[in-house]
From TrEMBL:
<dbReference type="InterPro" id="IPR014729">
    <property type="entry name" value="Rossmann-like_a/b/a_fold"/>
</dbReference>
<keyword id="KW-1133">Transmembrane helix</keyword>
<feature type="transmembrane region" description="Helical">
    <location>
        <begin position="12"/>
        <end position="34"/>
    </location>
</feature>
<feature type="transmembrane region" description="Helical">
    <location>
        <begin position="40"/>
        <end position="61"/>
    </location>
</feature>
<keyword id="KW-0472">Membrane</keyword>
<protein>
    <submittedName>
        <fullName>YdcF family protein</fullName>
    </submittedName>
</protein>
<dbReference type="Pfam" id="PF02698">
    <property type="entry name" value="DUF218"/>
</dbReference>
<dbReference type="InterPro" id="IPR051599">
    <property type="entry name" value="Cell_Envelope_Assoc"/>
</dbReference>
<dbReference type="InterPro" id="IPR003848">
    <property type="entry name" value="DUF218"/>
</dbReference>
<keyword id="KW-0812">Transmembrane</keyword>
<feature type="domain" description="DUF218">
    <location>
        <begin position="83"/>
        <end position="252"/>
    </location>
</feature>
Length: 281
């Protein structure tokens, strides 16, 4: 069932990706013109062009991203004791790392900087990495090609002792992240700092709670700009990148909720200070 969910999600995203949709609509409009279906071409190309122009000129994608990134904030005061630091994979650039035989970070590289900072603050806490390839056409054949091996190398190169690392390298999505690490946690009812991108935190927290894992959100890697810094800048690539991530995350929240992988559609911060899971699986 997990394999079917993984494959279906990749196929669906190929069709629902905003960038892919824009290309498909422009192609459909062009085909309509070539077939001299002028009215149909207008109905397709005019709204598509307006959307593309608006997305180019102004960061309208922030409207989808900001609610995700505002949902959880870093703790106002870090706890005196934690049982570990959970680092979700996604900050690595596996394809380019394998291509060039080096360790490359991607857009989520801030996850590693934050993990290093927390590892220094809590020198006795284990660092628990969970992640694997989320690409259908790049499932590593050996340990040396895995995201886990890449992460282990990055973390040790940054100065974190290998003896502190717990590496889980088979998960392909966020649901599998928490499913796979539960049995690896040093303390089953412990308290763990969770490091991932801010827009990804609501879904991650929802899954952790559903699996009975107590996490304290530590969001990093912000994509959007708050209103004072939002400008007309004609940066289509950056605006589309933010839209892709935000749109994918809202779809993920909905799919995970309706498939029973989380118990809340849009998980919210706990009201009490002690961060405990809301339910165990």
């Amino acid at each position: 069932m997990d394999d079917l969910f993984f494959i279906a999600s990749k196929i669906a995203w190929g069709l629902l990706s905003p960038g892919n949709l824009l290309i498909l609509l422009f192609a459909a409009g062009t085909i309509a013109l070539l077939l001299k279906k002028i009215v149909l071409a207008k109905w397709i190309l005019l709204p598509t062009s307006c959307i593309a122009l608006a997305l180019t000129a102004y960061p309208i994608s922030d409207a989808l991203m900001v609610p995700l990134e505002k949902r959880f904030a870093k703790p106002a005061e870090l706890p005196k004791h934690i049982d570990g630091i959970i680092l979700l994979g996604g900050g690595e650039d596996l394809k380019r790392s394998l291509s060039w035989h080096t360790q490359e970070l991607g857009y989520g590289g801030d996850r590693y900087a934050a993990t290093l900072k927390l590892a220094r603050r809590y020198p006795q806490a284990p660092v628990i990495f969970t992640g694997g390839s989320g690409l259908m056409q790049l499932q590593p054949e050996s340990r040396d090609q895995s995201e886990g091996h890449l992460s282990s190398t990055l973390l040790t190169d940054m100065g974190i002792a290998k003896t502190r690392l717990i590496i889980e390298a088979k998960s392909r999505n966020t649901y599998e992240n928490f499913k796979n690490i539960k049995s690896l946690l040093p303390k089953k009812d412990g308290q763990y700092l969770l490091v991932t991108s801010a827009f990804h935190m609501p879904r991650s927290v929802g899954i952790a709670r559903k699996r009975g894992i107590g996490v304290i959100p530590y969001p990093v890697d912000y994509y959007s700009n708050r209103s004072p810094y939002r400008q007309w800048d004609f940066d289509f690539y950056d605006h589309l990148r933010i839209l892709e991530s935000a749109w994918k995350e809202w779809i993920g929240l909905s799919v995970y909720f309706f498939s029973g992988k989380t118990s809340q559609w849009f998980p919210s911060p706990l009201n009490h200070k002690k961060h405990q899971p809301s339910e165990a699986s």
